[in-house]
Amino acid sequence: MGEVARGSAGARYGRIVCIDTVCLVRLHSSSGRGLCHPVRCSPAAFPGRTETGFVRPDRSPRIDPNYFGDERDWHSFRLATELCRDIGADRAYDEFRKEEVLPGGGKLTDAEWRQFLAKSVSTFFHPVSTCRMGVDETAVVDPQLRVYGVEGLRVADASIMPSITTTNTNAASILIGWKCARMILQDWR
C-alpha cells in the first residue's frame, strides 16, 4: 500500500496517509503470531492542542490529539482500516491466515466501527506544530526559528513545522536542524 493508496484502491479509499490504527490477522501457527496492517491516515481536522502548565509547573501538559475532530476523520480511518482488511483477506494470505482478530472479522455497523476506532487510534509519536513557525499571532517561532519574546533561544525540531509531513518526520527534522545551524552561523559572521 505504501504511504498513499492510489489507482483503483485510491478511487474507493481516497488519500490515506499518517496516524495509526490497526487491523490484526492471526496466522496458522502454533506460535500464536499474527500479521498487523498498520493504517495511516491524515486527519482533516488537525491540529490537536497541547496546553502547558506555565501557571502550575507541577502539572503535566494536557495533550488533545483531536483525532476525530471532523466527521471526515471517522470516514478516513474506517476506509483505511477496510483497505487493510481487504489486503489481509486476499487469497495470497490463505495458507497463512487463520482469522482476523482486530477489528474482529465480519461486517461492522457504524456504531461498532466508531467504537473500534475510538479505542484503537493512536499516534506514531511524531508530534509536530507545538512551536509552530510563522509570522502570525499563533506562531511561536519566526522564520529564523527564534522564539518570539525570548532572546537567544531557537527551536530546531519537528515542533516548528506548521503541519505534519505526509511521511516520517525524521528527514524533515534533520533538515530543520541543518538549516538552523546555517542561520546561526550566518548570524555570527
Describe the protein in words.
- The chain is α+β, with helices and mostly antiparallel strands.
- The protein has 2 domains: 1-124, Glucose Oxidase, domain 3, CATH 3.30.560.10; 126-189, no CATH class.
- It has 4 helices and 5 strands, in the order αββββαβαα.
- The chain has helices at 7-13, 71-88, 110-120, 170-188; strands at residues 20-27, 34-40, 49-51, 62-64, 97-102.
- The strands form 2 sheets. It has a 3-stranded antiparallel β-sheet with strand order 2-1-5, with helices on one face. The protein has a two-stranded antiparallel ribbon with strand order 3-4.
- Strand 1 (20-27) and strand 2 (34-40) form a beta hairpin.
- It is elongated, with a radius of gyration of 21 Å.
- The model is unreliable at 1-22 (pLDDT under 50).
The span between the termini is 48 Å
Q: Radius of gyration from the CA trace?
A: 21 Å
Q: Please identify the top-level CATH class of the largest domain.
A: Alpha Beta
Query: What's the number of helices?
Result: 4
Instruction: Please tell me the overall pLDDT.
Output: 76
Number of strands: 5
Pattern of helices and strands: HEEEEHEHH
**Largest sheet at a glance?**
3 strands, antiparallel
Q: Poorly predicted ranges (pLDDT <50, ≥5 residues)? A: 1-22
CATH topology of the largest domain, what is it called?
A: Glucose Oxidase, domain 3
Give the fraction of residues assigned to helices.
Answer: 25-40%
Biggest β-sheet: strands ordered side by side in the sheet? 2-1-5
CATH superfamily of the largest domain: Glucose Oxidase, domain 3
Shape summary: elongated
Question: What share of residues are in beta strands?
Answer: 5-15%
